[in-house]
């Protein structure tokens, strides 16, 4: 099983983009340019993935004011690893609602929120879980999840979640509200190769906005394999003197199942 956990506090990658390839998973990390005023990296990420490509579970975090909130989330996820993995091993129709229920209960728990109240800062976080032909996500804040596939691109669809500002977990906590605020979603993959791409906002808010258009990201991934597309993007934003840190998790998932189609088309197949 692929097992990766990292925070920018332990390895900030300032001025030095890093791309790591673990089987079919690409992780890109860049702390930003010190010449632009950057001096720390408060991002974090976690990846657990089945070696046979049956499933992937990923988290990216973009903390504010300090890295403590990102570290706290990852510590709690790691402490519940056995319980979460047990859920991920279930069939998709049980694993997806199961992991959603488990993570929401964890983030809303009194014990976790009490610890959040004692730390400095807060974090946006994005969870994604792919099992078989289905992709699920939980988004708190402004990290972004893309799903790239030619059929979706032809309809102008690339982005799965919408960036939400003023939403975090940590000292300022969306789960302390009387009605906790977050976004969840589920999506069926299309037939063939689907590219799943998570990123923090440094890539999207880079000076000159080289990757504001999702088609530019899709193009970089389409014509480069083994992490070269992610490496290219990090080198571009470095050249644009980006200050904010960027963390990327990307992988391809193949679906051989026949996806949902409109009745007048599916009846012809």
UniProtKB/TrEMBL annotation:
<protein>
    <submittedName>
        <fullName>Protein phosphatase</fullName>
    </submittedName>
</protein>
<dbReference type="InterPro" id="IPR036457">
    <property type="entry name" value="PPM-type-like_dom_sf"/>
</dbReference>
């Amino acid at each position: 099983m692929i097992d990766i956990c990292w925070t920018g506090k332990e390895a900030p990658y300032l001025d030095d983009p890093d791309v790591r390839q673990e089987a079919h998973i690409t992780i890109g990390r860049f702390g930003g340019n010190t010449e632009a005023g950057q001096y720390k990296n408060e991002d974090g990420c976690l990846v657990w993935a089945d070696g046979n490509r049956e499933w992937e579970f990923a988290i990216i975090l973009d903390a504010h004011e300090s890295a403590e909130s990102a570290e706290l989330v990852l510590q709690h996820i790691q402490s519940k690893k056995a319980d979460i993995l047990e859920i991920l091993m279930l069939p998709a129709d049980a694993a997806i609602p199961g992991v959603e229920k488990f993570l929401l209960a964890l983030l809303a728990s009194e014990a976790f929120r009490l610890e959040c109240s004692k730390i400095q800062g807060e974090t946006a976080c994005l969870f994604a879980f792919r099992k078989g032909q289905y992709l699920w996500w939980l988004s708190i804040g402004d990290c972004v999840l893309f799903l790239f596939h030619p059929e979706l691109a032809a309809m102008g669809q690339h982005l799965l979640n919408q960036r939400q500002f003023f939403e975090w977990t940590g000292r300022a906590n969306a789960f302390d509200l009387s009605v906790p605020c977050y976004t969840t979603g589920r999506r069926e993959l299309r037939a063939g190769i689907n590219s799943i791409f998570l990123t923090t906002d440094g890539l999207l808010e880079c000076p000159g906005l080289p990757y504001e258009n999702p088609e530019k990201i899709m193009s970089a991934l389409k014509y480069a394999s083994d992490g070269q597309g992610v490496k290219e993007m990090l080198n571009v934003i470095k050249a644009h003197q980006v200050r904010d840190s960027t963390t990327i998790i990307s992988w391809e998932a193949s679906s051989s199942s026949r996806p949902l189609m409109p009745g007048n088309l599916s009846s012809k197949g």
